[in-house]
Amino acid sequence: MKQPAPHVLIVDDEEHIRRIMSIMLTKRGYRCTTAAGGEEALAAVDREGADAVLTDLMMPGIDGLGLLRRLKETDPDIVVVVVTAFATMETAIEAMKAGAYDYISKPFNEDEMTLVLEKALERRRLIDENRRLKKEIGEREDSGSFLGESPAMRRVFGMIAKAAESKATVLITGESGTGKELAARSIHMNGPRRERPFVAVNCGAIPQNLMESEFFGHVRGAFTGADKAKPGLLTEADGGTLFLDEISELPLEMQVKFLRVLQEEEFRRVGENAPRKVDLRVLAATNKSLPQEVREGRFREDLFYRLNVVRIEMPPLRDRREDIPALALHFLAEAATRNGLGPKRFLPAALKVLAGQSYSGNVRALRNIIEQAAVMSDGEIIGPDDLFFAGPPAPQQDPGETPGDGPPSLVRLPPGLMDLKAALRQVTAETERVIIGRALASVAANRTQAARLLGLSRRALITKIQTYGL
Ligand SMILES: Nc1ncnc2c1ncn2[C@@H]1O[C@H](COP(=O)(O)OP(=O)(O)OP(=O)(O)O)[C@@H](O)[C@H]1O
Ligand SMILES: [Mg+2]
To answer: Separation of 177 CA from ligand 2 center, angstroms?
Structure first.
């Protein structure tokens, strides 16, 4: 593929110098634009960017050094070469310290100028390339371990593979922690845009008053406080994928704007009149029911249909328990590595306990439980006692059990208080909660007495009461 001509912005207050430089560089295959001063240069960069800026130092208004500093604030990687006369030599050195790539001295020599520019642009290319690679490797790691052997997950993988090929908008639904973001990354990484950016935005995390400028960008001076131009998330994702996470949190007025982006593939920066074209693949996720949001007037029906072209529903973990052991082993190895621990392994009983939980926080909850167990357990082995469950215990399906309100293991416990103390050492955290609840009830919620019954310190008991929300 042919690279587009590098774009150089020439900044000088003298018209003839701008012209000479422009002619020289155009002849050598650069695309040139010019600006007569710092202000004009900043506006030009805001408007159309530049691969390199070649600037004079002494200029009325914002001078070369001021321009350099302003440019570096918005884009630390921008390549700036300063042009210096003997009189401004000291300033040129100061400019180098402030991040100029190099300087050329006046009167300038055509070869020297192009040589410096070429080197500068080469460096810029390397920086960009490096960043892209790093990002890609990061993303590969993320989506490299998307596990699941259950029929439900196989169906999801099949849909992801099909969706990845197309540009269709995909709505990913499912409870919290089921892997919606992972699914979105996987669609991106398996499709033709994998080399291009994947920009994930949590729509619930952006303050309403900043939303438009965050998404669409703004020009300098568009509103009070907008002292720098901002390209915005859409521009950042151009050519790649924009992932709108928690889409239900988008305010209605932004929903209208997004509908336009999806239909026309263009948008307007805040403070700018002309629309800009953008080539995006949009993925959206939510753990709310959008049809319900539509019925209640919080979500636009037209946007819902526009997003819901392909729908992928992430199954809750409790409906695919067969995936739990593989996930658990994966998270254990990951936690051990990340925390610099030695090798760790589960007792079969621990895996059995893990597979029996209901996980209202789904895969994320499983991951947290395992990370905590990995860090808290002393030796190599993780047993059932090392597992700590915050949520309510899973309904047990064993038909041999007597029905009762607590977990079956407790139903069989004799009611004697000493037995409670012994029981606490044996059972896993899910039942611990119930035992503590019973102990508290038996002493009219007197914590000191309950702690004594349970063989816990008062402080430990209070921590557990808080953890379990008792
Ligand atoms: N099938 C899976 N294989 C491996 N890891 C998974 C899987 N599903 C989820 N995870 C991991 O679980 C965590 C939660 O996943 P993710 O952030 O994608 O969930 P989510 O559905 O977007 O959650 P939320 O609705 O809370 O934003 C992440 O650490 C993710 O890597
Ligand atoms: Mg998410």
So the answer is: 7
Q: What is the dihedral of CA 84, 87, 92, 95, to 10 degrees?
A: -110
Element (H, E) at 46: helix 38-48
Residue 287 beta carbon below 6 angstroms from any ligand 1 atom: yes
Ligand 1 in contact with 188 (CB < 6 A)? no
The ranges assigned to domains in the chain are 7-129, 145-315, 321-468
Ligand 1 close to Cβ of residue 146 (< 6 A): yes
pLDDT single digits (tens) 64-79? 999 999 998 888 778 9
- pLDDT tens for 369-423 read 999 899 888 889 999 988 987 655 544 444 333 333 333 333 233 333 334 554 4
Same fold, 7-129 and 321-468: no
Single-letter amino acid code for the residue at 338: R
CB-ligand 1 contact for 337 (6 Å cutoff): no
pLDDT of 339-374, one tens digit each? 888 889 999 899 999 999 999 999 999 999 999 899
Among 171, 178, 283, say which to mutate for ligand 1: greatest number of ligand atoms within 8 Å of CB.
178
Q: Output the pTM of the full model.
A: 0.60
- The domain defined by 321-468 folds into Helicase, Ruva Protein; domain 3 (1.10.8)
Q: Please give the Cα distance from 377 to 426 (Å, whole number).
A: 16
Q: Which ligand is nearest to the CA of 185?
A: 1
Q: Which residue has the tokens 């921590």?
A: 463
β-bridge pairing 7-11 and 31-35: parallel
Q: 454 near 436, Cβ under 8 Å?
A: yes
Q: Which bound ligand lies closest to the C-alpha atom of 364?
A: 1
Domain 7-129: CATH architecture, name and number where available: 3-Layer(aba) Sandwich (3.40)
Query: Is 145-315 in CATH node 3.60.15.10?
Result: no
